[in-house]
Amino acid sequence: MSRTMMEPSAAIFRNPWDLIDLEKYPVADKNSRSYQELVGLCRKQLSELGAAVLPGFVSKAAVEALAAEANELAPLAYHSTVEGNPYLTPEDQSLPLEDPRRMIETTSLGAVAYDQMPEGTLIRKLYEWDGLMEFLAAALGKDELFRYADKMGALNIAVMKDGDYLRWHFDQTDFVVSLLLQDCIAGGAYEFVPMIRNRQEENYDAVRRILKGSRDGVLRLDIAPGSLVLFEGRHALHRVTKIEGEVPRLIALLGYDTKPGVVSSDHLRYMRYGRNK
Ligand SMILES: O=C(O)CCC(=O)C(=O)O
Ligand SMILES: [Fe+2]
């Protein structure tokens, strides 16, 4: 990353909280009433929808600086094309073809890994700030959160270019925190079906209908750059529709876990970053 790009932003955003619109989102002031109200609002949205959206979480100036930074990092992204089912399980040929576990689609996207982001970049400052992590724990209703300990997977910038697509899937983790940095010209919509499955019931019929094109219960998150999204993706089927046009969709994915020291598997690292070291 060139120093000319870094210096002006670094001067304006000395502290991680300088990136955040603190008037709207008083995340630096744990003891205030407005902090507690914000936490309450997030919990309510999460329990009703499985998602909480905080539009304009980072200020306009901060989005510009973060997007500029992400555009500089984007050429480092490893692009992968992976076929699979929504459960990310190996294909089981004993199942009927109409079973959603056999309904294969292709995901294609790029990822800039945490270890490719220089120390001191704005996105790292934000992610590495304990204050944000504490706020997220409260908003997600967890006692404590830890940054994901994987040197590649902890923080990612997903780079989705013309024709890229993130297929319908369930997450293997309880939640994802994302910050959209740059939107594409067309496509790239975040679609989801809240609580289509739960711990007791897989609801394969409903999943199959969505995979075959039904719009029954499908919601769209209409988010602008600068929005922070907390999403519980284990029970919600979700996807990002195909990107169209020359401007890539850039989104930061902030990894946390309720346990310390959690890392990714070798297999997943090879798939997502094309390397293990
Ligand atoms: O790019 C997004 O908005 C969602 C990413 C996602 O669903 C995932 O990483 O599992
Ligand atoms: Fe997901």
| Distance between the first and last residues' Cα | 21 Å
CATH superfamily: q2cbj1_9rhob like domain
Q: What small molecules accompany the polymer chains?
A: 2-oxoglutaric acid, fe (ii) ion
Q: What is the mean pLDDT?
A: 95
Q: Using the coordinates above, name the CATH class.
A: Mainly Beta
Oligomerization category of the chains in this entry = single chain
List the helices and strands in order: HHEHEEHHEEEEEEHEEEEEEH
Largest sheet: 7 strands, antiparallel
Globally, the shape reads globular
Radius of gyration: 19 Å
Based on the coordinates given, report the CATH architecture. Answer: Sandwich
Which spans have pLDDT < 50 for at least 5 consecutive residues? none
Helix count equals: 7
How many β-strands, per DSSP? 15
Task: Tell me the CATH topology.
Answer: Jelly Rolls
Characteristics:
single chain; 277 residues; alpha+beta; Jelly Rolls; 4-stranded antiparallel sheet; 27% helix; binds 2-oxoglutaric acid
Task: Walk me through this protein's architecture.
With 277 residues, the protein is of the alpha+beta class. It has one domain (3-273): Jelly Rolls (Sandwich), CATH 2.60.120.620. The protein is built from 7 helices and 15 strands. The chain has helices at 3-12, 33-49, 60-73, 122-127, 130-140, 204-211, 266-273; strands at 51-54, 78-84, 105-112, 146-147, 155-160, 166-169, 176-182, 186-187, 190-193, 219-221, 228-231, 237-240, 243-244, 249-254, 256-257. The strands form 4 sheets. A 7-stranded antiparallel beta sheet has the order 1-11-7-14-5-3-2. The longest helix is centred in the first third of the chain and has 17 residues, at 33-49. The protein is globular, with a radius of gyration of 19 Å. The mean pLDDT is 95. The protein binds 2-oxoglutaric acid (AKG) and fe (ii) ion (FE2). The site of fe (ii) ion has 5 residues, from loops.
